[in-house]
Amino acid sequence: MLMQAHAPYAAQPGRSRGRRIHEPSAPTRSEFQRDRDRIIHSTAFRRLVYKTQVFLNHEGDLFRTRLTHSIEVAQLGRSIARSLALDEDLVEAVALAHDLGHTPFGHAGQDVLDECMKPFGGFEHNLQSLRVIDHLEQRYPAFDGLNLCFETREGVLKHCSRRNAELIDAQEPGGIASRFLRGGQPSLEAQLCNLADEVAYNAHDVDDGVRSGLIGLEQLLAVDLVREHCDDARREHPQLTGKRLLFETIRRMLSAQVYDVIDASRAALVEVAPADVDAVRAHSHPLIRFSADMRARSTALKRFLFANLYRHPQVQQTRARAETVLRDLFSIYQSDPTQLPPDFAQRPDLPRACADYIAGMTDRFAIREHQRLTGQQLF
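Structure for Deoxyguanosinetriphosphate triphosphohydrolase-like protein, as requested:
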């Protein structure tokens, strides 16, 4: 098997901290390659094609879904990982798994389920992604979940409240949640996926926002990061207008952010000089980072999108209907568990079973299920 050359501070597949249930190594794939393959073949991964970002599935065929977003994160992550001599397969595995726990209807679904689950421990999509890969997938005869490596699971658990970290650490002492209790960082590959997620999110929301007609390119020129690259594109290609100008602007924005991450991260790694991945984990701050200037520019773009796209009246109107769908479904399943599939209805923790079932739905299945149970057609 041809092995990728890694920097000493990269995660090393041959020295993984292992799986929760031991399995023999594969003859032709590294441990992280196996993880990536298990994620791609999972049911939860296939569902991402009908789970949306900002715009719901019925609003257009070309808007991003959780699946296309995850692929874009993986592509950006692998490009940067190769330049930094990190493990590309681990980056890809984490990128493809990071949204497996996302609800239907994007963040509206997350907020509603958290509200419904407040008396029962709450709901957080990032923790749900871990729950999917550790418990909810049922593909193997010897265990629940996908039995992924420590390093992949560590990367999937991007955020965690202290309360949840304590619960996880009680079951897995010194494991993937310990950094949230004791300070420290995940692997560089996990840090990279977190940043690639942000870069991809901003870029494709610019694209989808303009495509939807809710924001315009001229309006976006108020943001330094967009204006700089749009002006450069116009200078170099004066004939560019419309979609080609938008795409060229986004392409240049992405390239600038990728090169900035590579340069800033290289400088941080030279300064800190971590001897291995454990030295990376012991560091107090992420070593995969933007420069201070690019961080400020990225934050400004994020604020613009929040104010002008995510809070646009049309998006908010759709969000309100989505919230009604999920709130009604949770209430119905709670009061009448026979409406759940038997393997969910028979679980001892009914509220969590309801949340697991709803979180696994695609947008269109949730809409159909709501119409079946209530007779209402909200979309």
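The mean pLDDT is 93.
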